[in-house]
Design brief:
Distance between the termini: 32 Å
CATH class of the largest domain: Mainly Alpha
Mean pLDDT: 96
Radius of gyration: 15 Å
CATH topology of the largest domain: Trp Operon Repressor, Chain A
Low-confidence stretches: none
Largest sheet: none
CATH superfamily of the largest domain: TrpR-like
């Protein structure tokens, strides 16, 4: 995948103007399972921010330990979850 293709994706996302635009775009772009996985990661980030344990989060969301570890690392080192997940 080229850097230009990734930039094009971000350009499209920045043109979405409403929640409805986001919904129709992401429903076309992603499978139901991919949407569920993304939602699961956001929920996990919220629960981590609330101070829940890995065991509690896995039980509540069904997320894998590996994916939860990635979310946790991104929450600690990244900016996206910190800025956008409340």
């Amino acid at each position: 995948m080229s850097k230009e293709s990734i930039e094009e994706l971000f350009d499209i996302i920045t043109r979405l103007e409403s929640k409805d635009d986001c919904k129709i775009f992401f429903e076309d772009l992603l499978t139901n399972k991919e949407l569920e996985n993304l939602s699961q990661r956001i929920q996990a980030a919220k629960l981590l921010k609330e101070g829940k344990t890995y065991v509690q989060i896995i039980k509540e969301t069904g997320i894998s330990n590996t994916t939860l570890s990635r979310v946790s690392r991104s929450l600690q080192l990244g900016e996206g979850y910190k800025k956008f997940v409340k």
